[in-house]
Specification:
This protein is an alpha/beta fold. It has helices at about 15-20, 40-45, 45-55, 80-90, 105-110, 130-135, 155-160, 175, 190-205, 205-220, 225-235; strands at about 10, 30, 65-70, 95-100, 120-125, 140, 165, 185. About 45% of the residues lie in helices and about 10% in strands.
Length: about 240
């Protein structure tokens, strides 16, 4: 397929690297086109939709909510989030972790379910993703190495939604996430540092607001749907 193609779209620099270094695609064939997002879908979320989800999942408005949207796959780092959750609960016993897209490896599911029942919710599927992000006070996405995510849409979705976030760098995050500017960056497989970062965001409102504002600004300039359409149109127009 690569040999027959006149152009090959890479959705991130990570994919470009795989195409060139592992699959031997000539550089002149490759075009970098990031995924684009309709920001209006994230911005025009009716408040009642958020409250419906709050009731649906039995969340109290006074309870800090830590969001995770990742399938139960080993490379997503869920087990390290669970370890971090145990540390966070020592000083914040009322914090609640939401694990969305909670399906996959039953071993990982069993690890999550070792947390106190009052401190987590599992959501196999929630169709109103835009309202779901609005429930989170902190967002956590910690894949275990820089190559496992081809893109990682959830990085961008969280920042469009203005959620202060704790990340490891994988996929497209390696291109624009800066520690202390638009997110808090932690090392791979480091539960104690994940916990420390979560606690920093919960304790420091100016930090949380700064991350939220810078994160939104940085994704606005890179990942709008209009930019993706223009880039694809330019490829189609090449002779």
């Amino acid at each position: 397929m690569n040999r027959l193609a006149t152009h090959v779209v890479a959705i991130s620099e990570n994919v470009r690297h795989v195409l060139q270094e592992l699959e031997g695609v000539p550089e002149e064939k490759i075009r970098l086109v990031h995924h684009g997002f309709r920001f209006v879908d994230f911005d025009e979320v009716p408040p009642q939709n958020v409250e419906v989800l709050r009731a649906k999942y039995d969340l109290k408005s006074s309870t800090p909510v830590i969001g995770v949207i990742a399938r139960y796959i080993e490379w997503k780092g869920i087990e390290y989030i669970v370890e971090a959750a145990r540390i966070v609960l020592r000083t914040h016993p009322n914090v609640l972790f939401i694990f969305a897209k909670a399906r996959g490896d039953p071993t990982i599911a069993a690890t999550v379910r070792q947390l106190p029942a009052r401190n987590y919710r599992e959501i196999a599927f929630e169709p109103d993703l835009f309202a779901l992000y609005r429930l989170f006070d902190v967002y956590v996405h910690v894949p275990i190495d820089p190559r496992v995510e081809a893109f990682g849409q959830t990085y961008v979705e969280a920042l469009i939604s203005g959620v202060p976030s704790v990340f490891t760098l994988s996929g497209v995050a390696t291109e624009f996430i800066q520690d202390g500017r638009n997110a808090l960056v932690v090392p791979y497989r480091a539960p104690a540092l994940i916990a420390e970062a979560i606690l920093r965001v919960l304790a420091d409102e100016p930090l949380a607001q700064g991350l939220s504002q810078a994160g939104r600004k940085d994704v606005e300039s890179r990942f709008r749907a209009e930019g993706m359409v223009e880039a694809l149109s330019a490829i189609y127009g090449e002779s």
